[in-house]
Amino acid sequence: MKKSLFVLLAIFTLNSCAELQNVIDQLPQDGSVLSNADIASGLREALDQGIDKQVSKLTQKDGFFKNELVKIVLPEELQKVDKALRDIGLDNLADEGLKVLNRAAEDAVSEATPIFVSAVKDITFNDAKNILLGNDDAATQYLTGKTQTALYDKFHPVINNSFTKVGADQIWANLINKYNSIPFTNNVSPDLTDYVTGEALKGVYTMIAVEEKEIRNKVSSRTTDLLKKVFALQD
Description:
By secondary structure, the chain is mainly α. The chain has helices at residues 2-13, 17-25, 36-58, 76-87, 91-122, 128-132, 138-165, 168-180, 192-217, 225-232. The chain is elongated and about 70 Å long.
């Protein structure tokens, strides 16, 4: 018992990943402490909970539009379009243009959530111990680095289809045509699909990070025995 307490205390104070690995490798495997596999499973469970609890909120109406953490605003090149349209009294059209960008993201996340779930299941978390004792969003950052490129490639066509589904393509074609017809303005033709894809992905990772932070800092957010045991190590 004394040996287990001493080793756990060492985990709390070590900063080196190599030292941390050595300590956990020496933990007795008698059921009284967690194995490397348990820790990795706990981290995957935390990410799964983030997807289920937080990302699902993004699929609802106004999930992006009324969430200031992830709301998609106009890219820089379209801010002048927004201003010009409002200057000539087309406020409603400008408002609708912003709203449908967020609607497309909300619709796409609903269709693409299984992509994120699958990605989490495929992660091995070989460096799970370092993630466990890392920053509040360490697991989310790890997930981002491992999945962002592949998820972008899969997410882009979903966003493109969502633009058509929610009518964003027609609204923005009309909006940009209106702007381009204003005298003394330079025509614009932004790649809105690419922009919204990137912003939607950032929104998803942001919400996963929200839940990870909750689990790390609030015992009440650890809804399973495994989460309680794993994240007790970093308390």
